[in-house]
Input
Amino acid sequence: MASAPRTKAAIDKQRAILDAAVRVFARQGFHACRVSDIADEAGVAYGLVYHYFDSKDEILNTLFRERWNVMLATIKEVDTEPLKPRDKLQAIASFIVDSYRHDPELMKVIIVEVTRAANSFGQTHLGEIREAYLMIAEIVTKAQREGTFKREIDAEFAAMAFYGAIEQVLTGWIFGLLPEGEEHFERAKKLVVETVCGGLQSEPAAAK
Amino acid sequence: MASAPRTKAAIDKQRAILDAAVRVFARQGFHACRVSDIADEAGVAYGLVYHYFDSKDEILNTLFRERWNVMLATIKEVDTEPLKPRDKLQAIASFIVDSYRHDPELMKVIIVEVTRAANSFGQTHLGEIREAYLMIAEIVTKAQREGTFKREIDAEFAAMAFYGAIEQVLTGWIFGLLPEGEEHFERAKKLVVETVCGGLQSEPAAAK
Amino acid sequence: MASAPRTKAAIDKQRAILDAAVRVFARQGFHACRVSDIADEAGVAYGLVYHYFDSKDEILNTLFRERWNVMLATIKEVDTEPLKPRDKLQAIASFIVDSYRHDPELMKVIIVEVTRAANSFGQTHLGEIREAYLMIAEIVTKAQREGTFKREIDAEFAAMAFYGAIEQVLTGWIFGLLPEGEEHFERAKKLVVETVCGGLQSEPAAAK
Amino acid sequence: MASAPRTKAAIDKQRAILDAAVRVFARQGFHACRVSDIADEAGVAYGLVYHYFDSKDEILNTLFRERWNVMLATIKEVDTEPLKPRDKLQAIASFIVDSYRHDPELMKVIIVEVTRAANSFGQTHLGEIREAYLMIAEIVTKAQREGTFKREIDAEFAAMAFYGAIEQVLTGWIFGLLPEGEEHFERAKKLVVETVCGGLQSEPAAAK
DNA sequence: CATGAATGAGACTTCATTCAT
DNA sequence: TATGAATGAAGTCTCATTCAT
Output
């Protein structure tokens, strides 16, 4: 960080810049926006952005880390609770959907600019991203050991499928391909877990 | 297109540029690479790229359309065949995985630069992308009508989850998070369908 | 000056800033360093630098004038003393070398940033710099009148050669091209005068 | 170099940029001028400067090397000729003065921006600069071995004094402190050698 | 006196695109 | 078709200076 803010007011300014960056990144995309757009959106002078951040990159890195750390902490906490595997996945799915509900622009930025950006920020945060996948895989592994989940589906693979399904639903909202709104968010939480855990097939068919 | 190639040699040149672009986009990312990088990779003069393409954007657009049209055609064809819904999804999953197996760089480019790029190419190709989702959803809808698939999971939603699961597996390969290789590709085809159609839960648990 | 310091403590602060500036200018060069570097080096707040100085330029100007005035005073004094011309030049050479010995960083700054900076500070201080040359030339002129020095070498020219020889020796030390240390400093004082006054040629050859 | 020019016309353009840079650097100083000033002076588009050079720095580096290599070659050649030591130094002094006469702006740039720039370009070209000093010192060393020059003055030291005397004369011209013109140039060539080799003192005085 | 946040002009550099040959 | 020189708009980052407290 270019300069650690010392006063309360300074911290607020830094926050304002980060929040403005979310809006601008979400609206225009990281590459298409200019640092001056962020400054304008935040209502601060151009130079102040560089007073608090070393570069445009660092702003996105900061945004990603802030949110991803919450996610990692959540998954970690969920895993320690006495829940059934499916409920653990349900809690994670709910958290991610709620993250989107709470701040869709931030999640858009994270998904569009980081978790799929194999040549730029995704690479930078590979370790942190992988950590989330591994923790989910761990939940699956435990479920397989206790017999709740099928053993023939590799845990790491299952984790990717699960996470991918959720992220794609968010992508659907982001692109305007799926309907948004309270009820849809709640429904999505259930459905994604029902899909990945219960499967799309009806019971009789599955019982084939 | 800047200039439709007439001669055989010209068509080859254009192809060489497209193929070079795939490698360069995959290696450096669309934004990070320069048009001169593509020319160098293709072994042609800088200006020639502009003889065959109007812009850097058009190169990516062309690459995407070429591949996506094949995908759309495949899904369309699959849907007309007398297959069980799950086998249709299996065929689609196989096609996508094979696409990656056949040309991982191209698929990397499509996933990283287009299907998740909500502010740039993703927006440009939104119609085509949606078309694929809708066709998959249509398969699900029919399956639900005939009772093979559960009706409580919205077809469009199911389509997104299905597609997202596959794309995430490809993303795992792209990022080096999942192991690649013939056997893994084959296994992935089965597992993704087993996960989404059959569910992660073991029968007894599901039967609960 | 931005604000003439009144209290003893204030004077010390201003001195600390000047001393810090010498170190920073010597280490990074005037252009490459930032005002904040000076503040950091001095251990004072950024803004305080501007409390004592109007600009970054003024700091260097102050440093130069402080030292150059001592030099001018010294030359002036030397000239009034009842010394032989060569001894006068010897005294000047000694003063300059001692200046370097006493504060090599300051002399580095003066030579590198001022006396050769034809487009910036050198131009600003042209009058003062010329004054030194003229006083040396005056010594030579008198020596020529009294017959101690050859008349065929223009006094002004001789002054430049003399001063240039010394400054180049200092440059050699600054660049690490000539060995430093007490004995070298002492030796340099003698040699530069011996070179310029006595000449490099051995007597027989000169007597040719 | 950013791009090696291939055609005759391209080489001319590159030359035009270098020549323009000399004028601009000499007039405003390296730091004070902008790349656009160089482009304007050369009558080319801004971007073309970067087509031929990687950076503003590289332009100066190129200018320095071009000239300095000629100097090194000249000194080397002079040293191989069957001349008396003093005549060798005379040849070198003449070459430097002629360099100034031929292209005073280039010499100004080299002296002001490189040979005394201990923190930037001087450091970059330290090796090449030292090489010149060493070759001159070598001439002195040989002269001392054969008895032409006094042995009590270290050769390296003498080389610095000699070179410094010349450079200071050029500096005098650059600053407008010494009169320029054909006759002065010719006179300077002789005087600098007479000063450094013969000494300022008149014979009787030297015969002390 | 002292602090460091705030400002914004300015410069380098990049690179997509055009053009003359 | 083919080449690569030429163009210039645009964006990031720097940093001297100002200002509110």
